[in-house]
Amino acid sequence: MNDREMRAGLCSALPWLTEDLERDGRRAELDSAVRAVLAETPVLEATAGLDIPPHVLGEPGPVRGEEPGAMIPGMTPRSAGTSYRCPDGWCSLNVVRRPGGELPAGGRCWLRDRPLRVVEA
Predict the structure, then answer these.
(1) Among residues 14, 24, 35, 106, which is most buried (max CB within 10 A)?
(2) Parallel, antiparallel, or unpaired: how do β-strands 108-109 and 82-85 relate?
(3) CA dihedral of residues 25, 31, 36, 37 (deg, nearest 10)
């Protein structure tokens, strides 16, 4: 897994990580790690010591549109909703929201505090 993908995992998990680490009195450590990631420090290096389970940084949510081909030969893929992506492609976040479904991550990039980029899925 590359650092860009881990940034997406960190960004997706940031709301609940903030809540958990704040409850444990470690919010300042998380804030420091986020600043380091934003300054281009590798995610694993920046978050070392925070006891974040490895799978958290590897799960930015469901990703669509990168399948090797159509599921049914001869069929043209159709939109399945909207895709919410990192505002500037800094990480690999790409979460599909089904019509009427929950808004992914509240529609925000939690690391950079910017709105996610919305595109047709």
Answers:
(1) 14
(2) unpaired
(3) 110
62-92: pLDDT as tens digits = 443 444 444 444 545 555 578 899 998 888 8
Residue with tokens 């940031």: 14
- Listed in sequence order, the DSSP H helices in the chain are 3-23, 27-38, 43-47, 54-57
Q: What pTM was computed for the model?
A: 0.63
65-73 own/partner pairs: CB under 8 Å, 24+ apart: 65/94, 65/96, 65/121, 66/94
With contact defined as beta carbons under 8 Å apart, do 36 and 46 qualify? yes
Evaluate the CA torsion angle 84, 11, 17, 44 in order and state its sign.
positive
Residue found under tokens 């409850």:
23
Residues whose CB falls within 8 Å of the CB of residue 106, separated by 6 or more in sequence, listed in order: 15
